[in-house]
Every structure is written in C-alpha cells, then in structure tokens.
Amino acid sequence: MMSQELDNARCLSPRRNTTKATSIEALVDEQLAHFGIDKQSDYGQALASTASHLYHAQSDVSRLWEITNQTLADLDKEDRVAWFNAKKFLSFQLAKVLDTLQNPFRKTWQSLSSGNSSQHHYPLFDNVTALFSATPVVVRTATYVYACTEWVDDAFQGKEFTHQIYSRLLNPTNISLANAIVDMEAGPYSADYLAWNFNSGMAAIDAVLANVLQHGDVLVVSRNVYGGVYQLLHDYYARENRMDIQIAWFDGYTTEEFEAFFDKTKKEHAQRLDNGANLHVYIESPCNPHGYVLDVPGICDYAHQHDALVMLDSTLATPVLHQPLQHKEITSRPDYLIHSYTKDLCGSGATTAGVVIGPGYRMFQPKGSSMNGVDWSQTLFWDVYYIKGAFLDSEKAFDVLNGMKTLEPRIMNKVINTQVFTAFLNHHQDIRVNSHAVETHANAKLKQKQHNHSWPCTLFTVDMAGAGLSREVFTRFFDALEPAFSHQVSIGQNNTIVLCPALTSHSELSAEEQKRAGIELTTMRIAMGTDNVKQLIGHFILAARHYIEPEYPGFCDKFMASEDVDALYESTAREVAGQYYGSAPSMATIMQE
Q: Where does the sequence pass through the membrane (predicted)?
C-alpha cells in the first residue's frame, strides 16, 4: 500500500522522473532542496508541512478515483448524488487553498519589482476564480506558464494531460468542447473516444484523410459528398504527383449495394492492394445535397470484415437524428466520425469549425506508447494535429458550445418544417421532391431504420423539371424566393436557405458527375430553418404566381389548399413534439424503480 501511495504522490514532485525518494517525507525534502529552501526555517517548516499534506492528498484522491471506477456502476442514484456533491465540494476546498495562496504569492512577486514599469502583473494570480465559472472559460492565450523542467518535459511527451503548452495544441475551452461533443455522440461509450477540434469542417476532413491514407491507397467514397470534399479528393489526394489515391465512387445506399461494390473495387485494384496499398472507406450520411442516408452500421460491419477503416461525415445527422458511435456492436460503428460544427451544432452561422471523433488509442497516446496495433506516432494528434496547426481557437469553441445547448429543440423545429414543406411540395404533381421525409421515397426505409423517431434530414432537394420550365422562368422564380428563403451557400442556420448546387456547392463536379449525383441545372437544395414554415409556403406560392403562372397557366392550381396546409402543420407539429417529449425517460427509469 505504501508503494502505491508513493507512486501516486510522486507525480507532484518537481523531480518526478529522477527522484530517489522512498517515502513521502523524502519527496518533501527533495522538493525543498530543489528550490533551495532551508527546512529548519519557519518558512521551510510551513512549506514542508503543506507539501506533505499535498502529497498525501494526491494519493488519497487517486484512491477516490480507483474506488469510484470500481463501485460506481453498482451504486443507486441516491448515493451517486451524494458522491457527486461531496466531490464537488472537495473541488471547492482545493480551489480555496489555491485562493488563500494567492495573496502571499502576489506579495512575494511584487517584492521582486525594481520599481519600474517593466514588472508586469503575473496572470496566475487571477486564474483561480475561473474555476467557479458556470460556463466554460474563454482562454485567450497562446502559451502557458509551466511548473518546472521535468513537468514541461512530460507535457511535450504527451504525459502531462492537464498542462497545456501552446494553444495550437491544447486549449481549455477547446477541450471543453471536445468533451461535450464526445459525450453527446458516444453517450455510454464516451470513455472510449476522444475528439480533436479544427478551424473548419474541411480542415477536420483533411486531417483524418491525411492520418488514415498512405500514398497509393484505394478509397471507396459515397457519391453524394459535399462539393468541397470532392474537390479535396479529386484535386489533391487523387493526383499522381500528390498522394495518388485511387478513388472508387459508390453510388448506392444499402449494405447489399456496398458489399457488391466493395468486392468489385477489390478485384479492380487488386494489383495496387497486392503491392501494399490499403483499402478504406469515406462516407457521408445523410449526404449532401439530397439528405439521403446510407446503411452506416451495415457498411461498417462489412468494411471491418476486410480490415478497412471507415470515416463518416455525420454533419447532417447531428447527434439528434443519429448517433453512430452508440451502436452496441463496435464493428458496426465508424472508426472516425466527422462534424462540421459550422452547421447545426453551432446553428448561428457565425462560426466555422469542425471536429473528428475516434477511439482514444487512434486519437492520442503518450510518446513511446502502443495500443491495439497503433503506435503513438500514428495517432491523429501526433501525426497531423500536432504539426498542421488547423486548431480551433477558444472564441469559436465557446460559440459552438453555446449553440449546442439549444440543438435538440432547434432540430425538432426543423423536422416539423421539413415534414410540412416536403409534403406541401410533394402534393404538386409537377414538383419532384428528393427527400426521405416523403414516406414513399426509396430512401425512407433506411431513414426509418436508422434515425431516431424516423425523423428526416432537414436538407433535401427539389426539382421542377416536371413542369418543363424554361431556364429564364426558373431563374426569375428562384431569384424571387428572397427574403423568405435566404440565398446563401451554407446550411444548418436558423434561417431557411436555398441554392442551386450545380452553380454553387457542387460546381466542382463536371456535368456528367453532377448528373450521376442526381443534380440537374434547376435542382434547388433547401436547408430548412426554424422560421415559420407557413410563411415560407406562402412566399413560395406568391413567387410562383408572379413568375411561373403567367408562362404556365394552371401551375399554381396544383398547390395544396390553404386550409389543408393549416391542418398539415398542426398535425405534424403535434406528432413530432409528441415524439420528442415522449422519448424522455420515465420517472421510474430516472428513479431506478
């Protein structure tokens, strides 16, 4: 027991890696000697007593952690409440000790001043009160004060988890966001996952591709991916003078389609694979621009049978619609999950940011470590994040954290709007609605299987090709959709956004590639917001009356009647809200009765 106590205490020593101490008392003596303090002086005796208490406290807290891990699962909820609040108060006690230390610390610092203005204040004095902040603190600093040589050496080795070195690597606000998204996505499996935040969704995607892919690899990619991803793959990774990645575009959605395509790809590129290339998978579900879902668990299962890693962009799912990392079978989960925080997770449209979530051993290991066949140098942190500098700054991290607080009710509202608006449009026989919100759509069964409450993706496309509109009439109508529909290129904001993918988000694709992706020149991509959907419908009808009806008489007679829209909205809102609020755990579950 004494040996374990000493091991737990040793991490607090300024000589943690070179100590010869065989007891806590010896650790105290070493500490005083390290800083040149006379142990017999009044100051030395008080310092020695304090240090001794801290070493013992570190060992005791380690024991608390051990007991918690061993017994938490078997505790009833009454005891969990008591344990939480006891630990919370212990944190306040430790903070109070630090606070008490601040005045003598400040006085000593001030005594070193030579009387000129070059002696700036020492920020460590002011940081203790930040521990009591009710929201994550925005830490605006590039670098950090370090404790001593051996501690900062450990920090550079990735062995001092609570000691940031440089905000390009770690920042407290950034870490708060990483913890929050892991909890939201992985739920009961959160302890197995880590996240790294990036300055944009594309930076996150580039990071995971750079980490997973090696020169000459083969990558299966779902056809309907964000246009920026297509450009990144086509213009960089696939170029022979760059990464020479062989891209295989997968057009299907089901497991059966994927299995057939995966096997075909292995045969077509057998020579590459035989020469040492790897075969991996990158998918987007729901996908841009139609919002269709792929059978993620089935695809992951089959890919893992063939030792392929799966990267999933789950931006449009958000954790509200689908939580792929919470599948009970680990083989049915993607290896990496990606979000563009810029979209629904933040929701304001004011911040660009992204994240990659993955198993802890693939995301970070201290230098010199190896786990599950992955060396520390292969982890996302050391291989990419540490050196590329596409980190997320604290202000953006705080914006995303604030947005995430309202994510669920915002998505509920958007789902109501999506179901109402797609039903309204689908009523018109000359308008083709590409959305699994329409229950007769080919992708609806996968949505029902995979999405919580069978809620649809709030992004979809609409094609008015059935009406035979001329290019001029369509563009005049499209331009008139403002201001109810915002002409913007992003998605996931509170306002409803409409654009033509062929001219914007997917303009990087050739005409043939656009057609394969189901994109016509007149296709409209609609990203539903939280605004009043009946106002949107009214504006849509008015624009059609003004610009389409004169050229195509009778077009507007095919819209749903006003009273039917009212009834549709009321019934849909009741149903979706009932699903959302009805999914809350029962009181018996909460009380474990």
A: none
* Pairing assessment for the beta strands 354-359 and 432-434 based on DSSP bridges: unpaired
Identify the helix (H) or strand (E) that includes residue 220: strand 218-222
* Residues of the chain above pLDDT 90, percent: 74
Integer Cα distance of 162 and 61 in angstroms: 16
**pLDDT at 524 (0 to 100):** 92
Contacts of 71 (CB under 8 A, 6+ apart): none
Instruction: Please state, in angstroms and rounded to a whole number, the distance separating the CA atoms of residues 556 and 98.
Output: 71
**The residue to which tokens 């213009």 are assigned:** 235
Q: What is the CATH number of domain 189-392?
A: 3.40.640.10
Sorted by where each begins, the domain ranges of the chain are 189-392, 406-588
Burial class (CB in 10 A: 0-12, 13-18, 19+), 534: middle
Instruction: Look up residue 16 and give its two tokens.
Output: 């943690």
Distances (CA, A) of 200 to 206, 299, 326, 354, 400: 10, 26, 25, 5, 12
The CA dihedral of 30, 34, 36, 42, to the nearest 10 degrees, is: -40
pLDDT for res 254? 97
- pLDDT at residue 126 greater than cutoff 80: no
How, if at all, do strands 218-222 and 279-284 pair? Answer: parallel
| Amino acid present at 569 | Y
Give the separation between CA 339 and CA 415, rounded to whole angstroms: 19
DSSP annotation of 550 reads T
Tell me the mean pLDDT in the region 302-310.
Answer: 98
pLDDT of residue 1: 43
Paired sense of beta strands 354-359 and 336-340, if any: antiparallel
Tell me which CATH homologous superfamily contains domain 406-588. Aspartate Aminotransferase, domain 1 (3.90.1150.10)
Strand order in the sheet with 497-499: 432-434, 459-463, 524-527, 497-499
Number of CB atoms found within 10 A of residue 189's CB: 17
E strands present in 365-455: 370-371, 374-375, 432-434
Instruction: Report the predicted TM-score, pTM, of the whole model to 2 decimal places.
Output: 0.91
- Bond preceding residue 286 cis, omega within 30 of 0: yes
Q: How far apart are CA 349 and CA 341, in angstroms?
A: 10
Give the DSSP H or E segment for 165: none
d(CA 124, CA 274): 57
Number of H helices, E strands in the chain: 23, 13
| 208, 311 contact by CB (below 8 A) | yes
